[in-house]
Amino acid sequence: MESEILNNKNSLFLIFNWKLKKVYEKMFYSLTKEFELTQNEIDVLLFLYNNSPLDTARDIARYRAMSKSMISKSVDSLYKRGFLSYETDETDKRCIHLKIKPVAIPIVEKLYEVQKEFFDSLTYNITKEEYKTMETVLNKMYQNIIDQL
Within a domain: residue 124? Predict the structure, then answer.
């Protein structure tokens, strides 16, 4: 049955995406408990850590496909815990730049290691040539998605 589903390219994309997200979240499960963080809070912290100078809620919404309300809730919680600070943009007072506070860096570094482990396991046994091909194809697919939005 499963091979029949995987032979249908439409189902393959949807199943792959669902399973990818499930495995990604599973890898963080022990750290969600250890640091009392939600997966969304982890996603916000890792986005800020990995994507400087992208540091606004708008950036997170655009690139992580999280709802504005979920970002707001996560940012508020991280701010209250002392993990984030924010600065108002000097040229646009409506724009708030989020910063990871030094106290949170050791936690974020542990989260980053799990994220790196995830991507390493995902690309295990994939040659550099295959990776480049995959990257080319995914970039084209991403552009197709952007063109639809």
Answer: yes
| CA gap 78, 40 in Å, rounded | 10
Q: Domain range for residue 68?
A: 11-148
AA identity, residue 47: F
- 96 CB-near residues (< 8 Å, 6+ apart): 56, 57, 86, 87, 88, 89
Structural domains in the chain (count): 1
d(CA 108, CA 118): 15
Longest dimension (CA), the chain: 58
Q: Is residue 101 part of a domain?
A: yes
The pLDDT tens digits for 103-138 are: 999 999 999 999 999 999 999 999 999 999 999 999
The pLDDT, as a whole number, for residue 3 is 54
Report if residue 49 sits inside a domain.
Answer: yes
Q: Which residue has the tokens 């393959």?
A: 12
